[in-house]
Amino acid sequence: MEFIDLVGNTPLLSLDRLALIDGVKILAKAELFNPSGSVKDRAARAMILDGLSQGALGPEKTIIDATSGNTGIAYAMLGAAFNRRVKLYLPANANIERKSLIRAYGAEIVETDPLESSDGAFLTVKKAVAENPDLYFFPDQYNNPANPNAHYEATAPEIWRQTDGQLTHFICSLGTSGTFMGSAKRFKEYNSSIKTIIVQPDSPFHGIEGTKHMNSTIRPGIYQESLVDGEIKVSTEQAYAMARRLARQAGILAGISSGANVAAAFALGEKLPKGSVVVTILADSGARYLSEHFWRDGHD
Length: 300
Known about the structure:
Layout: E1 12-14, E2 25-30, H1 40-53, E3 62-66, H2 70-81, E4 85-91, H3 96-104, E5 108-112, H4 117-131, E6 136-137, H5 146-162, E7 169-173, H6 178-190, E8 195-201, E9 230-234, H7 236-250, H8 256-269, E10 277-282
Parallel strand pairs: 2-10, 3-4, 3-6, 4-5, 7-8, 7-10, 8-9
Antiparallel strand pairs: 1-2
Helix pairs in contact: 1-2, 1-5, 2-3, 5-6, 7-8
């Protein structure tokens, strides 16, 4: 087995330890079990393999992209596995854990204006590629169809099998939107009555790392509004509180967007009829957020 073959086939966990909703199952796809610790391993692997197969990622090329953290960590891991240089643009206020993980794999970091968030990093990397196109392989995770296709081909079929085809609702937050878009498309093909619902921060100014407020940011090219059946808004405080609850009441150390996803899944579940099966995503490990203050707050 090759190391990259460890990507995917993650477990689907019951969240009954957090709360019980009569007749409704709330389940979470534990993407933190991927080798670099996040769901982004799937998309990064697909984009890198596509670049290699197309001949666009030769040994002389450097993998370059913008990231808020998780995809960058996945790129760095895969760059090491495939003996390719990696250069990543991310906001300067990205936390120390994510920067340390990227550097541990040997990748280079270029820090961008924190006030411009991930949009600023994306625009800066596009300029760098335009100035020296022959130096780089630019996967462009926001616009590369291999990103959602990774979830169409693998994540959604895994969930379908793990729920024995009983899935009724799929809900998760959006970064690049690849996880949601690829999965939602496949679920609609399995059963057109499955509802696919996005999780949104309740404000453009939020602290839910890796999650976009779509109405106030550059919309990814892979985003398709037609696949969205509804949305649930979550505050930063709700996401923090649920991340703490996952750790303290269920023993699951997951990140901030995972907290938002689970909070939204339970809010949705409270409104659903008996027999509903809701699946959300535990996008990454909480170990890459341990310097964040919210772990020390509250008494969940």
